[in-house]
């Protein structure tokens, strides 16, 4: 492949600027990658703790349902469950280093009974089960949100890695090589010009002496 580098002083200056810009871009990408990785591991630790809590809470919730069935019966549990409707899930987002992280919130669905009646009139065993499963639902929602965030962060980390590798291993070495080629060419021209100037000067001096 033919060398398409323009061997001029202006191109030398422009190439030097490109090296500087690329190096700064690489530095910023590495800083971004570090921040993304730190955020990923932070969320990962949170998810690990939440999963453990969910596991324990589900076990407690199942035991609470069994107790409620024994004390108040399945029909009573089903009757009270019909008084509730499914919650509404709202999905928003926040920006972390250019990555949109999902934020989900749950709004309680319509229910026939209010919280006061729920606390005072529903059998204790069923109320305890409801409270536990409401907690489990919120934990599952939070885990889902955080796992989605982790996937987005991983995707962005991968893209950032590919960009930084391209700059570090392809772009900057190419710019450096072009700079070296131009610099060597200009230095050679300068040496040739100096040698020519020296020859002309010595020739002029010699001619002047011969004319005396």
UniProtKB/TrEMBL annotation:
One GO term describing the cellular component: plasma membrane
Membrane topology: Peripheral membrane protein
Gene3D superfamilies: 1.10.287.3240
InterPro entries registered for this protein in UniProt: V_ATPase_D
Localization terms from the record: Cell membrane
GO MF entries: ATP binding; proton-transporting ATP synthase activity, rotational mechanism; proton-transporting ATPase activity, rotational mechanism
Presence of keyword Transport: yes
Coiled-coil intervals: 143-192
Highest taxon of the lineage: Archaea
Keyword terms: ATP synthesis, Cell membrane, Coiled coil, Hydrogen ion transport, Ion transport, Membrane, Transport
Single Gene Ontology BP annotation: proton motive force-driven plasma membrane ATP synthesis
Quaternary structure, from the entry: Has multiple subunits with at least A(3), B(3), C, D, E, F, H, I and proteolipid K(x).
Function: Component of the A-type ATP synthase that produces ATP from ADP in the presence of a proton gradient across the membrane.
Family assignment from sequence similarity: Belongs to the V-ATPase D subunit family.
Protein name: A-type ATP synthase subunit D
């Amino acid at each position: 492949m033919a060398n398409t580098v323009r061997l001029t002083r202006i191109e030398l200056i422009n190439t030097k600027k490109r090296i500087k810009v690329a190096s700064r871009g690489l530095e910023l990408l590495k800083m971004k990658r570090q921040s993304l990785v730190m955020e990923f591991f932070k969320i990962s630790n949170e998810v690990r703790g939440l999963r453990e809590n969910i596991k324990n809470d589900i076990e407690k919730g199942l035991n609470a349902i069994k107790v409620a069935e024994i004390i108040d019966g399945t029909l009573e549990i089903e009757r009270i469950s019909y008084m509730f409707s499914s919650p509404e899930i709202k999905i928003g987002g926040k920006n972390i280093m250019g990555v949109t992280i999902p934020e989900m919130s749950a709004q309680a669905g319509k229910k026939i009974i209010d919280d006061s009646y729920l606390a005072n009139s529903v059998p204790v065993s069923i109320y305890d089960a409801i409270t536990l499963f409401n907690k489990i639902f919120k934990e599952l929602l939070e885990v889902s949100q955080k796992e989605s965030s982790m996937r987005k962060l991983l995707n962005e980390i991968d893209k950032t890695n590919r960009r930084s590798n391209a700059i570090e291993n392809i772009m900057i070495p190419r710019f450096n090589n072009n700079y070296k080629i131009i610099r060597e060419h200009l230095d050679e021209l300068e040496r040739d010009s100096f040698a020519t100037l020296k020859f002309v000067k010595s020739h002029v001096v010699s001619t002047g002496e011969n004319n005396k």
